[in-house]
What we know:
The structure is a single chain. By secondary structure, the protein is α+β, with helices and mostly antiparallel strands.
Amino acid sequence: MHPRIEDYALIGDEQTAALVGLDGSVDWLCLPRFDSAACFAKLLGDEDNGHWRIAPKDADRCTRRAYRPGTLVLDTEWETAEGSVRVTDLMPQRHRAPDLVRVVEGLGGRVTVRSTLRLRFDYGSVVPWMRRSDGHRVAVAGPDSAWLRSEPEVRTWGEAFGTHSEFTVEEGEKVALVLTWHPSHEPRPPLVDPYEALEHSVADWRAWAARCRYDGPHRDAVVRSLITLKALTYAPTGGIVAAATTSLPEELGGVRNWDYRYCWLRDSTLTLGALLSCGYQEEAEAWRNWLVRAVAGDPADLQIMYGLAGERRLPELELPWLSGFAGSRPVRIGNEAVKQLQLDVYGEVMDTLSLARRAGLPAKPHIWSMQSVLLEFLRSSWRQPDEGLWEVRGGRRHFVHSKVMVWVAADRAVRALESYSALSGDLDGWRALRDEVHREVCEKGYDADRNTFTQYYGSRELDAALLLIPRVGFLPPDDPRVVGTIDAVRDELGHSGFVRRYSVEESPVDGQPGGEGVFLACSFWLADALHMTGRTKEARELFERLVGVANDVGLLSEEYDPVAGMQLGNFPQAFSHIGLVNTALALSGDERAG
């Protein structure tokens, strides 16, 4: 049986991440960065596309697993007829090279453990040349090199284009296996002590988690979400990837398979709010600084997403040799949506920088200059149709959410001039822009007969992004049009107690065949909107359902199939975990949520 998305747990070193299955197999790992080519790609293919499994010989799925509290260190345990054993997986924060550390510990009896390593560089397409050196196994292919070693040394041999080890452990005995990557033209990096790395990783993660100042309901879920966001952060730049994976399907067997290993501007405001509200000012500042560097340049060239260091070119390709997760093809790398026009990102950037200013992040004079330029671009360009926040591939429309976020951009600029005398700008002109956008959205984006805003001008379709109208301040929560929109979205886009982002079956703008699951971030937005309109009991009930969707180690993907009871889409998804944190903050009475 093919693994399910929720069968996986995440480990990482804040520069890349690996997914570990319930069977003890690492089925996804890109080295040296999140967006590098995978050396383990079984997740999107089969065993011949690369994986590394450590488990008791002849055993299947584990008996139990869990993160050590407050960490990204994963313990997986098996109970067998011979005894019990634990495998602890981690990626210590790197000094120079990335290491994958796997510590096997006997818990009782005498257990035979088998390690099977199949390295396949370039997304499972390249079988490396293997050799021995100083008691290590060394894999080399093109630019990639990886070293496998064990402490203490165990019997290792090559067979069927894989590297195999077998050993026994009794109670209290430990064997650590370490895989280290480096560029093949460079010498082997210094060796990491796996046992010290484990001790330091646990201490470092717990110290970080202890900084969380949220102390309301579901604190464990909030801390797990924050740890996940930290794990999805590319530490050298502060950028946060949308997910650790590419091409996990929004519908099993479908074609809605996209690469999310990049940084979306849209996530910025919600991410910044979550981090600041929970006490992580340093991470919020790093994310703000990444954002400012990434968007520098001609405002007409503002992109919706960038690479980890702000790279602009993310060409989309298909990998035909990979069969896809549960047969979901094509497998894609890169993302063609980077070329789309999405006017809402200007509003999200302005809102992010406004939030940073109010939160007291260190001021930088050039930031306001950049904001002024962005707003001047919007003043001349906001009437254009765009592809909207869902990156539809069925043509441009006048999406209501995009126009609302144009209003947000103007509103935040006006508020900044009214609040900070040191700033200068066209206050009257920006007020006029704000008023004009507001008037047009209320005239052209609102269906008076149904008492709801619509997906785009003249449409009868709805969009879950409309739930954000009260959150961004476009209209107050008690406005009848807001209440009507919330009710309409819940009625028409609701599914089994959750929310779809829009109607795939009826929407002419989607441009893709097939369907998808309910969208978890949108479901959190509904909980927020219900809470803002005084329906807190319903909001809490929805929040409880959403927390229950997380897998056994607290991770959420992008979407969920409530009928089959399974997660869908890329995993773990930052947007979903941001939603969890902000909704928890809102329901706990924290006004700083986002």
